[in-house]
Amino acid sequence: MIEKTDKIKEDHFTPGASSPPPAGGLGAAIPNLFTLLNLFFGCLAIVFTLQNGIDIVYTREQEEFVKLTEKIYWSSIFIIIAAVIDFLDGFIARLFKATSEMGKQLDSLADVVSFGVAPSLILYQFLRMSFIREQDGI
Questions:
Q1: What average pLDDT does this structure show over 33-62?
Q2: Model pLDDT for residues 55-99, shown as the tens digit of each residue
Q3: How far is Cα 93 from Cα 100, in angstroms, rounded to an integer?
Q4: Which of 4, 75, 116, 120 has the fewest CB atoms within 10 Å distance of its CB?
Q5: What sign does the CA torsion over 97, 102, 104, 110 have?
Q6: Is residue 35 predicted with pLDDT exceeding 80?
Q7: Contact (Cβ atoms closer than 8 angstroms) between residue 126 and residue 55
Q8: Which class for 13: exposed (0-12), middle (13-18), buried (19 or more C-beta within 10 A)?
């Protein structure tokens, strides 16, 4: 017959010592949720940047006008919102002392999308629009 021991290992936290690692659960997931929100707004910025809003309008005199209806201003607003959320993400992660390897990788991905890809696409769209407005442009 196997005997059970009544000894239970317990880790005690001593005040003044370094803080214990986060217990997981919701407290550790909140910074990752903010990071996902940052990534979401970065993706929204990309979608609004890539919307094709070129309308070619002809007048009665057969003059051609290019009407650009892009919503790039919304993209820049989404990037600003992503920056605020990125700041809050870091602040909340330090507040809850919740760090993880997945959180670091997710934060890097969100930063690349929100502050690398989305602004680059806005620049690309501005260059594309400047070429379209020229007589011998695209």
A1: 86
A2: 667 777 777 666 655 678 899 999 999 999 999 998 999 898 888
A3: 10
A4: 4
A5: negative
A6: yes
A7: no
A8: exposed
pLDDT of res. 13: 46
The gap between the terminal CA atoms of the chain, to the nearest Å, is 85
| Lookup: tokens for 126 | 């501005």
Name the residue among 22, 32, 6 with its Cα closest to residue 85. Answer: 32
Q: Is 19 helix (H, G, I), strand (E, B) or coil?
A: coil
In whole numbers, what is the pLDDT of the chain averaged over residues?
80
What are the counts of helices (DSSP H) followed by strands (DSSP E) for the chain?
4, 2
85 touches 38 (CB < 8 A): yes
Instruction: Quote the CA–CA distance of 97 and 30 in Å, as a whole number.
Output: 11
70-107 as b/e, with b when 16 or more CB fall inside 10 Å? bebeebbebbebbbebbebbeebbeeeebebeebeebb
